[in-house]
Amino acid sequence: MNQSTYDTSLKPAHRAANSKLSPSQASTPISTPEAVLEAWHISKRFGELQALDDVSIRLRSGSVHALLGENGAGKSTLVKCIMGYYQPDSGQMTLAGKEHLMQNPRAATRDGIGMVYQHFTLIDNMTVAENIVVARPDLPFAVDWTKEATAIQAKMEHMPFQLDCQRKVSGLATGEKQKLEIVKQLLLDTKVLILDEPTSVLTPVEADEVLGEIRKLAVEQGLSVLMITHKFREVMHYADEVTVLRKGKLVGSVNVADTCPEALAEMMMGTRLEIRPQPRVEITGAKPAKLSLHQVSVENDQGLLAVNGIDLCVGEREILGIAGVSGNGQAELVAALSGQRSLAGGAIRVDGEQYVPTRKQIAKHRVYCLPEEPLRNACVPELSLALNLSLRNYDSPETAWFRKIMRFGVIRRRVKKLIERFNIKTTGPNEPIGSLSGGNVQRAVLARELSEEVNVLVVANPCFGLDFKAVRAIRNQIMEARNKGAAVLLISEDLDEIMELSDRFLVISKGKILHESRPLEADIIEIGQAMAGQGQTMSSAKPTEECAAWQSA
Length: 553
Description:
By secondary structure, the chain is an alpha/beta fold. The protein folds into four domains: 3-112 and 191-268, P-loop containing nucleotide triphosphate hydrolases (Rossmann fold, 3-Layer(aba) Sandwich), CATH 3.40.50.300; 122-189, no CATH class; 288-366 and 454-553, P-loop containing nucleotide triphosphate hydrolases (Rossmann fold, 3-Layer(aba) Sandwich); 381-452, no CATH class. The protein is built from 17 helices and 22 strands. A six-stranded mixed β-sheet has the order 6-7-8-3-9-10, with helices on both faces. The protein has a six-stranded mixed β-sheet with strand order 16-19-20-13-21-22, with helices on both faces. It has a four-stranded antiparallel β-sheet with strand order 2-1-4-5, with helices on one face. Helix 3 (128-134) crosses helix 4, helix 8 (261-269) packs across helix 17 (524-531) and helix 14 (438-450) packs parallel to helix 15. The longest helix is centred in the middle third of the chain and has 18 residues, at 204-221. The protein starts with 34 loop residues before the first strand and ends in a 22-residue tail after the last helix.
């Protein structure tokens, strides 16, 4: 298949056109006599967070089963329970009709359950054959590498993907590495194959090739496939059944032939919106545009456009939400706004001035950011809490002599005040930030970003995976920044969070803005259609009454 023949439609490629089954008609789960793996009433709690609550799923032989849900819905927790990484608090699992104990990943591999992870688990300085051999659950004490490579190459001829066993992994392209991960599991005699976001690192053409071969294997060899994905097109094209989770609970399981993207989006989000806006300082009249994006485009790691020519503006004392299913350009947009990724086109302006997020301009315009996974994107885990909280201003006149020699006494006193103000649970300023809980890492980064007067605040999934107390504290801080005059761009996959905090919100799909509304005027059907990629691309998101300075910018 070449690029010109890539089909972006959502019509199932391997069955008749689907009807529209409503979420209320979804079964829980589909009952089939060909079940290979069944997980019943699985629950798992981490502290105060109920990650899974009475979830059941049934996988058939010879079928592809998609697992859908927003960020934090419990998808990864469920498959980690199946693989034995986590022990569920309650529930049971059967494999080929017999009770299966979820002991550990090695035991799961021995029992024929394999998983291809979102991030590669390959060893770069080893060959293809060596990576396959070391993946075995029972590796012999002595390995005849030549004999193993010959045997693997012979078996490879009957595999859907052909790879040279002597090539080093470091020399493989991204698509070849993904194929190797799949072949590795197939050579382990896997009967149940779990794929975690299998196309997140692939081009559309590579994605079609990989998923097409996986589906062929399922149909022809009886392989049972569970595919975690956030792409409706992949569900409609390649899956037979789909199970939807929301906030750790099972919404339902349906046959793909009986549903449509709009119905699936509604299942993911809920059939109604509970809109409870937080108290805020209400501002009447036009708001000056503090942050504006003009035809902004950003590429992903594969050089493809992840953000495609979007316009938007955020006014003073305004929270603009961006809602959408994971993987539609949100991560790339945040990376561009925080200076971690260059623009492929367009321009960013702050207070009407051209803005490039260098350290100098970030300080000048006071544009601060709380990215998703801050421990990876905004912290140095091995450094102390004090040093991490000082990354923003370690060379300022207040904290350094001649902007070179840090005044550690001043820094410690300042950090102690931030710990108290933001209620960061820690043993003290010298504790490595990497040892803090997720909620406290979020609080710490937010403390750093809000410790000075903020003009523009960009936040991405700020409460993902946190308990109720941490969620409430962080959302209060975001609202306080807005009320003090900041323009806040809130990018979140939690629609409840968008509705609670936003003054108005947009929906992003495939890197384009497809919908704009205010929380109290929100229409769940229109939101679901936009999240599923159905709707007209908006040329802009800049109502005159919201951003009076747009034209002058």
